[in-house]
Write a structure and sequence with these properties.
Length: about 70
């Protein structure tokens, strides 16, 4: 049963974006069949981090969930 608490190592963030960013996030959410915008933002930021930190050689790998 969910407790409403975040799992260890997780933090909640929030922000304001343009409609262009929001539309892109909605498309990302649909592509990955994610249930909430919160999870969508988290997944998008995780993908961004992997690309930014050089954990993937090809950005397409991050989109496909590979490293």
């Amino acid at each position: 049963m969910p407790t409403g608490r975040l799992r260890p190592g997780r933090v909640k963030i929030a922000g304001v974006v343009t409609t262009e960013v929001h539309d892109a996030l909605l498309a990302y959410e649909k592509e990955r069949d994610l249930p909430t915008m919160s999870q969508t933002v988290g997944a998008a930021l995780q993908e961004w981090l992997e690309i930014r930190c050089g954990r993937v050689q090809n950005p397409a790998q991050a989109r496909e969930g590979r490293k």
